[in-house]
Each structure stands twice: as structure tokens, then as C-alpha cells.
Model the fold of this input.
Amino acid sequence: MRLLLVEDDAMIGETVLQVLRAEHYAVDWVRDGNMAEEALRTESYDLVLLDLGLPRRSGLEVLRALRARRNVVPVLVATARDAVGDRIAGLDAGADDYVVKPFDIDELLARIRALLRRSAGRAEPAFEHRGVSLNPATREATLHGEPVSLSAREWAVLEALLARPGVVLSRTQLEEKLFSWKDDISSNAVEVYIHGVRKKLGANLIQTVRGLGYLIPKQ
Ligand code: CA
Done:
């Protein structure tokens, strides 16, 4: 899953970035409203963590412009503890949820998981499909009840495909889920992770659609 972190405070940004990366999210971090706008126009994200008080363009302006473009990416706004008005304005401008600064990190992560789950149209916390279970909260993967150890990026590839069974994701789309701007991408990286998943979960779970990409069948 790829996240955009919009935060102008260097210390908060650095901390949140490290925490999110430790949870295996691919994260891009921008520090002002204009850069946020630019990133949201050019890249595709699974979720945005948006500070409202930003230089150059406020978080609310970024959010309103985003929704005016009919972009439905889940947005979690970050506000100060006593700023009830900001929370209301954020929600009314199209935010899906809010977190209060200073963050309780575990709560932040739980809210992110909840929004990602909801945006994927999933009620239950774990992905369950064809004998495979993937639980983002515990980071446990099992095959027919037996634990399977996946690398962070094998997990990310599998999660992206499990989120949309029956839908073909191209190599580029999968790369977008896996890598932030800072990462060097080798041309066959996605193939390598798919190969890893197949070795651990069986050759038939992820199917190759020649010339188009990969999918996990619906049934
Ligand atoms: Ca700020």
C-alpha cells in the first residue's frame, strides 16, 4: 500500500515516516500544500495523511481541490488536540477520518488500517481468499491455517492483488503500490516478488495475464 504523508513539521514527519515504513507501507513525504497538490495530481495513493496547517497552501484547500477532481482516495486529517473546528471543517471538506496531534501511534496505525479496509469494501479485518489469510493488523499470513513467512514486498504485492480479486493489475500499478519516490526500482522487481509469493503459496494463486499483468481469480 502506498501512502502520501503531508506534514511540514520535520520532527513529526520523520517519526511518522519511520513508523509507517516499519509497517511496510511505501510512503512519499511532502512538506507543503503545493507539493501535496502536485503529488496527488501525478501519483496514485491508497491513503493520504494530511496535516491541515501547511505552508503555501492549506490542507483544507488541498483537500477541497482533491475532492473537486472527484478523487476518492481515503484522507485522514491531522489536527491539534483543541482544534474541534478544524476537525469539523476537515470532515466537511471530504476527509474520511481525523487523528489528533500528538499522535498515539497505535491509534494512527489502526485508523489507517480501518480506512484502507473500508476503501477496499471489506468488513472483516483480514483478507481471506482461496485458503490464504492475510491480516494487516497482526501481519500474519497463513495458508490453510499454517503460518507463512512473507517478505515486506511479497506481502505488499499479495495484499494489492487480494484487495481486488478478479482485477488485473499491471506491473506499473504494482510498482506504484510497492515503491516510494526514494526507492530504486529494478525492472524485474515485481516479477521477483510474485515468484516469491508463488513459491510460498502455490503457483496457481496469482495468475499471469500475458501482456497485461497479474490477477488473483475471484473464486
Ligand atoms: Ca503543520
User: Anything to note?
Assistant: The chain has a mean pLDDT of 93. The longest helix spans residues 105-119. The two ends are 23 Å apart (CA to CA). Residues 8-9, 51, 53-54 surround calcium ion (CB under 6 Å).
